[in-house]
């Protein structure tokens, strides 16, 4: 039995449940969008996803801390009573006897902040703006052991089975990875005959033949620096523009070769959050790719909630990685 077989199974079932909740919320999203202190949106689905995933993790691995993005503090305010009621309705679809206090406890099980030798990190909805817009988003869960992601369940509830073939029935894919064992793509369909498919990054070796996968929202990364690096590499192919950690999935299954998350000129000291990258990074690495920061340094998950030792993120198919790092350095010289 693989060393992390149980963790992978629990993680997949947890994100699958969260995806059902999120899709239910999105089908009837009507004003339940709050704004956090950093001006980013948060919805019933963010809270509900964190609640059901943290419950599953606490039941299966009670000693494992969870570093998640959300907490229940805003939900407790009288002004958010309607959001709280909607959240309870959605969670009760999966856990009928739950009460508000227990839902808050499940959410706050994901509020650990410090580093542990073994812990989970969770982004209950990565790409909330895409979720609200009816576009791509991801549910990203990863197990970190000794500072390295070892298990990932990256769930993309609106992503088709292939980027250039979009039958509605194929939307909803999970990308499951265990370090050293590869990455598989697993449909979210309840069809018991659906089998996971091993995926690999592309075999592109000439950087000029590469294709970028970029953020749909330009404020998430420095597109100018990426364009300068692309020009130095001779890249002419149109980029794939998509929300969330689904970009990692696109690189992992070989539909793009390079994903850059670079500091913007107006926030050069921004530090990435671990939940924004842990699951996606492992999905790419286990599929044969390489993920570092923009200086070629491996991502360091030993600093709690932040990637404090890293600047930006570069994910590639592997063969072109060194040349991408060199192009970024030259573009900044």
UniProtKB/TrEMBL annotation:
GO BP term, example: sulfate assimilation
GO MF entries: 3'(2'),5'-bisphosphate nucleotidase activity; metal ion binding
Keywords of the record: Hydrolase, Magnesium, Metal-binding
Top-level EC class: hydrolase
Record carries keyword Membrane: no
Residues binding Mg(2+), per UniProt: 69, 123, 125-126, 276
This protein's name: 3'(2'),5'-bisphosphate nucleotidase
Catalysis: reaction(s): adenosine 3',5'-bisphosphate + H2O = AMP + phosphate; 3'-phosphoadenylyl sulfate + H2O = adenosine 5'-phosphosulfate + phosphate; adenosine 2',5'-bisphosphate + H2O = AMP + phosphate
Annotated stretches, region: Disordered: 185-209
Compositionally skewed regions (Polar residues) per UniProt: 198-207
Cofactors required: Mg(2+)
Family of this protein: Belongs to the inositol monophosphatase superfamily.
Catalytic activity, EC: 3.1.3.7
Domain of life: Bacteria
Database matches in Pfam families: Inositol_P
Family matches, as NCBIfam families: bisphos_HAL2
């Amino acid at each position: 039995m693989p060393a992390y077989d149980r963790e992978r199974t629990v993680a997949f079932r947890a994100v699958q449940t969260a995806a059902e909740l999120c899709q239910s919320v999105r089908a009837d999203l009507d004003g339940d969008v709050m704004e956090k202190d950093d001006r980013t949106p948060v919805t019933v689905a963010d809270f509900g996803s964190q609640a059901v995933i943290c419950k599953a993790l606490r039941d299966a691995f009670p000693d494992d801390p969870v570093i998640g993005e959300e907490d229940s503090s805003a939900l407790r305010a009288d002004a958010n009573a309607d959001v709280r009621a909607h959240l309870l309705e959605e969670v009760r679809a999966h856990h009928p006897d739950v009460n508000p206090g227990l839902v808050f406890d499940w959410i706050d099980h994901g509020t650990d902040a410090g580093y542990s030798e073994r812990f989970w990190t969770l982004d209950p909805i990565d790409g909330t703006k895409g979720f609200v817009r009816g576009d791509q988003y991801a549910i990203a869960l990863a197990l970190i052991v000794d500072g390295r992601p070892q298990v990932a369940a990256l769930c993309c509830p609106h992503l088709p089975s292939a980027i250039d073939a979009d039958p509605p029935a194929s939307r909803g894919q999970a990308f499951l990875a265990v370090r050293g064992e590869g990455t598989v793509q697993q449909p979210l369909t309840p069809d018991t005959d659906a089998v996971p498919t091993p995926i690999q990054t592309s075999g592109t070796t000439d950087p000029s033949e590469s294709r970028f996968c970029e953020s749909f929202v330009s404020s998430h990364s420095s597109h100018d620096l990426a364009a300068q690096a692309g020009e130095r590499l001779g890249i002419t192919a149109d980029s794939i523009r998509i929300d969330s950690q689904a970009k990692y999935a696109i690189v992992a299954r070989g539909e793009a070769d390079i994903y850059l998350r670079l500091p913007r000129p107006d926030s050069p000291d921004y530090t990435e959050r671990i939940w924004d990258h842990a699951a996606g990074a492992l999905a790419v690495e286990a599929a044969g790719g390489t993920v570092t920061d923009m200086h070629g340094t491996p991502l360091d998950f030993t600093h709690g909630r932040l990637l404090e030792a890293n600047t930006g993120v570069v994910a590639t198919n592997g063969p072109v990685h060194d040349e991408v790092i060199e192009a970024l350095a030259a573009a900044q010289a």
